[in-house]
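Hey forum,

I'm writing up a methods section and want to include a predicted complex as supplementary material. The small molecule is flavin mononucleotide. I've pasted the protein sequence and the SMILES. Can someone with a working setup run it? I'll credit the forum in the acknowledgements.
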Amino acid sequence: MKVLIVYETKYGNTKKAAETMGDVIKEAGNDVTVMKVDVVESERIKDYEALVIGSPTYASSQAKSIKKFISSLDVDAGTKIVVFDTHSGDGINTGGPMRRAVKKMEKQIEKNPNLEKIMNGLQVAVKGIEGPLIDGELEKCKAFAKKIVENL
Ligand SMILES: Cc1cc2nc3c(=O)[nH]c(=O)nc-3n(C[C@H](O)[C@H](O)[C@H](O)COP(=O)(O)O)c2cc1C
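Reply by user p_vandermeer:
Happy to help. Structure tokens for the complex are below, copy them as they are.
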């Protein structure tokens, strides 16, 4: 299956999570492309049968670039989608699971009837603002990616 993983990042943590998931999904025999949101060509998105979208949490929401990307998605019916976020996970600036980018992205996805959410999103914790990823979070990303493979 052709899978596109799109992420936003400032400090590299969301990119690392995206690439880790990409490796697992690729190893399972899928055709995977991992790209930062600003280089995705919107007219090429229809080439993909499944999308994985990752955003840092900013002020309890997804990055503006990701919000714009999801709201402008022009895809065929039945395009599979799953999201993940990164957020501060050590007590700084956290507002709990409902106040993270995953929830906001999933609300956006519900508005597009052509998108089929295949799983609940994953929330990935980083240390402070700049990271790195907190111990154990990369393993969570790998397990999540294995589940994605089962749901493709
Ligand atoms: C302006 C700003 C606002 C942020 N707001 C939140 C927040 O509301 N909740 C939270 O858990 N983390 C918050 N963070 C932490 C980010 O989620 C964290 O920097 C991000 O996950 C790092 O991802 P990256 O390395 O891919 O850039 C904020 C970070 C910045 C820079």
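Some notes you might quote in the supplement: The first strand starts at residue 2 and ends at 7. The mean pLDDT is 94.
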